[in-house]
Amino acid sequence: MKNISSKTLQDLEFHVVLEQAASHCTTTDGKKAMRNSQTLQSNRKVTDALAHTNEYLWSFSSEFQIPNHGFDPIEKELQLLGIENSTLEKESIRRLAAMPKAINEHIKFFTKLQEHFIKLYTRIQPIPENKIIPQEVDAVLDRFGEVKDNASPDLKNIRREMNSVKGQLNGSFGAALTHYSQLGFLDEIRESVVENRRVLAVRSMYRRKVKGKIMGSSKTGSISYIEPERVLTLSRKLAELETEELEEIQRILKELTDFLRPYLEEFKVYRDYLTHTDVIAGRAKYARQINGLLPIFSRDQELELVDAYHPLLWVSNEARGEKTYPQTIRLHQNNRIIVISGPNAGGKSITLKTIGLLQLMIQAGFLIPVHEKSRICLFDHILTDIGDNQSIDNHLSTYSYRLKNMRGFLRKANEKTLFLIDEFGTGSDPELGGALAESMLEELYARKSYGIITTHYTNLKMLANELPEMTNANMLFDAQSLEPIYQLQLGEAGSSFTFEVAQKNGIPYSLINKAKKKVERGKIRFDKSIAALQKERSNLRKTTDKLREKEVNATQKANKLEDTQDRIQQKLQDFQEMYDTYQRFISLGKKFDNYASNFAKNKKKKQLQDDLMKMVITENLKRQPPKKKQDLKKQKQEQGKKKQVENELLQKAAKIRATKKVQKINEPKESPKPKIDFKLNDRVRIIDSRSVGSIDQIEKGKATVNYGMFTTIVSLEQLEKVG
Questions:
Q1: SS3 of 421, please?
Q2: CB 3.0-4.6 Å disulfide test: which of 99, 302, 311, 395 passes with 332?
Q3: Residue 303 pairs with which residues in a beta bridge?
Q4: What span, in angstroms and rounded, lies between the C-alpha atoms of 236 and 231?
Q5: How far apart are CA 557 and CA 13, in angstroms?
Q6: 357 backbone dihedrals φ, ψ, rounded to 5°
Q7: Half-sphere exposure (CA, 13 Å, Cβ side) for 166?
Q8: CA distance linking residue 565 with residue 355, whole number of Å
Q9: pLDDT value of residue 393
Q10: How confident is the model at residue 637, as a pLDDT?
Q11: Which CATH number fits domain 632-665+673-721: 1.10.10.10, 3.40.640.10, 2.120.10.80, 2.30.30.30?
């Protein structure tokens, strides 16, 4: 891929995206790097950058939080490290030591979770872990960045002696304070601090009676500030020790700086890694803000953006609480160029900018606000001609500038070029400019380039209708209110609604009618036809929405009726089972009454016992183990499938038996089977089958067998009685 021109970046406002993303970076170097971001120059770099951003974005919603990558600027520190015999300050050393600590945390984190962060782990894999620098620095500096007492034996001794002198000094000053206070020489405030030293607040009339060094006086002169003589000696000794302390600290810092100097190149690697990590984190946070995601990468040269939002418009509308309208558009080998037409203020330009800006963001490693079904590819060139580009510096008119721009288009255009042109051909005589624009569009078409243009020229709309790999499109307009719908409609050109918009804005009808007479009838008829088609499509869209809503309501009602029918069917089934049970009990009762009557007549116990045993055995044989009740909804779902499968199986079984029957005819005849006399309600089954049913109807040698959940018609010869 080639670098995208600065004009294209400016036309599509890519710098605004970078500025918004930079606000999500946490380091100064990261913000600067984000603002200077460019589109990447190879497919691999693009895919790696997108994978880095996508993995970082995933971490926000996962249980694995990536360690902190923040760091303070170290440019000054790196310059000093490059100078021999230089010494870094405590704060500078602390800044440098924080970098390998952050790197070590990242190495530990990504090594442990490399299966979740494959690409981010690959980034840090070449950087070795460094524990020496943190250990050496931590041995000298505490967590507040101050030099520790045990940084060296000399410093430890000096600070121990300093603490001892400070104790003596406080004791001596306290004694002097008590002594002169009892003598009444001190003012009410008793003491103060001058030049970081404790002094007595002596009344000026008694200053000659207090031994010590006068350090100053109050503004009125009523108070003299005196350091007691007993404290002077100790203060001088403390000052000497403080000087020794500073010299020892400076020696320690120089020694530590000399230790860090060989790691100059490593610090640069750490800085670059953490800066790039901050850029990745910034892109991920920006993707979270605009609902960005990683679309599907297509191996073919095609661009399909489904429900695509303009990110800058999304952010501004979200801040104002307004709605943003998505667009869906597709460019592929059989539809490379789209010509968008229609009235002004309908969203043509924003659609153009949405496609271009999202393509730039993808090629710079940003996730984009589209549907996950979207498909993307990469382009070597993205060429734009958007807005009024009149050049005052070069004394060029708008049209001259656009012609110069088109010359650059024709020089770069190829099969991996995406061009975006707003108001193509304008700025000159409509007929002549339209003819030249048509020729240029034909040339871009011949070079297999991909692109989107907006225009009002009829000849360009007609050209798009004639060429097989070019398509007309329009921004939908409400035909009644003449308000834009902000939805792209592929397949037909759009009317400019010139006279309709004029009439809506209060232009007298007489002037509009006069203007119509000045225009060729053919053009008016053509534009009128397009407008009529758009009105018809608008009405059709509304009708479709209403029908879809009615269909949803009808489906919901049908589902409710089906549920009701299932419940009724279950109740009927329960009642049928109850009825059958009662009928069986009534039949048994009648038999038992009959046996009792016979016994009353003949008094034969044995016959009664035999009859009762036969009745019990007969009932046990009739009873079959109860089937497990299945859930009615499951039965309903499986009923259709079961019916279809069993019918197919029965038909196949019938064919197989018919074939066997023919074979048996050819075989030596056996003794004929006795003919069975079937009656209605007989329990039967197909020969070699296990399913048992009852005969509902007999007609012309065939029987209708009811299996409960379905019925089938079978020849009587294929049936046998059961029970």
A1: strand
A2: 302
A3: 331
A4: 9
A5: 51
A6: -65, -40
A7: 9
A8: 52
A9: 44
A10: 55
A11: 2.30.30.30
